[in-house]
Amino acid sequence: MNDTKPAPGNAATPAQVRIFDTTLRDGEQSPGCSMTPRQKVVMARALAGLGVDVIETGFPASSESDREAARLIAREVRTPVLAVLSRCLPADIEASARALDGAARPRLHVFISTSALHREHKLRMSKAQVLDTAAACVAQARGFVDDVEFSTEDGTRTEREFLAEVVGAAIAAGATTINVPDTLGYTTPEEMRALFAHLIATVPGAREVVFSAHCHDDLGMAVANSLAAIEGGARQVECTINGIGERAGNCAMEELVMALKVRGAWYNADTGIDTRQLVPASKLLSRLVGMPVQRNKAVVGANAFAHESGIHQHGMLRHRGTYEIMNPEDVGWPASKMVLGRHSGRAAVSHRLRALGYTLGEGQLDQAFAGFKALCERQRVVEDRDLEALMHGDIRGDGFRLASMTVSDRGQRASAEIELSDPDGRSIGKRALGDGPVDALFSALAAATGVDLQLESYQVHSVGIGADARGEANLSVRCGDDAWEGTGTSTDVIEASALAWLDIANRVLRARQLQPQRQAAHA
What we know:
Mn(2+) binds at residues 26, 214, 216, 250. Catalyzes the condensation of the acetyl group of acetyl-CoA with 3-methyl-2-oxobutanoate (2-ketoisovalerate) to form 3-carboxy-3-hydroxy-4-methylpentanoate (2-isopropylmalate). This is 2-isopropylmalate synthase. This protein is of the alpha/beta class. Helix content is 40%, strand content 20%. The protein has 3 domains: 15-289, Aldolase class I (TIM Barrel, Alpha-Beta Barrel); 306-391, no CATH class; 401-521, Double Stranded RNA Binding Domain. It is built from 17 helices and 18 strands. Helix 2 (64-76) links the parallel strand 3 (54-58) and strand 4 (81-87). Helix 12 (310-318) crosses helix 13. It starts with 14 loop residues before the first strand and ends with a helix.
């Protein structure tokens, strides 16, 4: 494979690409992702620790909340450039400039639509009016601050000649950064690379300013288009943590940054990001906005460095490079994960048992592996505590079982009444109230079993189609300092939720029973 194509930097000095983070502005516009001013300050501190060059703190003219957030961040975050977004309207620019009062490194970011579609249907302005407005507003912004960014909204769908004319007018009026957004996620990498190369080569003054890309992910190409823009000469990329943003989101910072790291010989470009902070920043944002990261998300997803297939696990045990192109520690994960499940093979199970202190002969390993496979029929993931229980002969099907349940959601609070059979066959009944049927159900189960679980993630989806479809519930919880996951399946999703909860509770109780044996073994 050829890994030495001509790239943005020279051989001795890779090109430095600025990271412009718009999580707090464009990212927050993602439905369900709004943040309070205080939450924005917390996230801004994390972004500063991550090493981003520019933080876009909000759109001050849009709300008092955005204005307050911009003011708070300006006081507390001093190292990165702090930008605020403004339409090319004099009143908006004035409001934005006031929101930047006290910022150590302020930037005004002004924008106007440039495409024919937007000119006709959104702005109802002629080309000449757009040109005059862009130049006048950049000049106005430059009167407040020295650092002015100008954006051509829907730039990639703008006629190339007119786009060059607007960019030239903005540069002449004092813009120091020119952003050409792919606002609708419409373009392709080949078009993006050619567009930036053309503008930088032909627009007067283009080589005296920084060109920036802002790509949306409507066709799943935001990261690819941003990388192509860098190849075309862009030296700033606008992106968000976890790729959140309008519609399908923005270029995901973690993916762009690691693409430049891993394929450095190809792109010959780099950023100033402390990549070890990518996962912590991703988790912080997820907690702040309540939007979980999909498990198979690149770099920061829970499965990004997880391996369950026996073939992959065997390769990983021989050499990590067989199935990983990045070190998990380099992006903030503690280590790769060998997930033991029904696709795992003998090598992975044997390796994990040895790590737990069990030295087994061939016959003993055969028996343990058979027990492991049987256990995989009852639960998706087998953890260390499950393997220890298996080795001690304590994997039994005689934990708490669901006998009956009634859930009602009438009135102000939901109620749940359940009956369980305990490991000794006795019947236990409990009733509880909750904020919803699932909350009431879990409260009743906790009262019946004596196991207190703190819910972190709860998902229900359909398994199968048509008359054979069943509901599957997946829970992620904490019990004390330990994280647990459980699964339940039933034709009724509420019952599936109860079975998932009991799946975890029974394993927690087995782990507690094994604790004295573990302590004795390690004494």
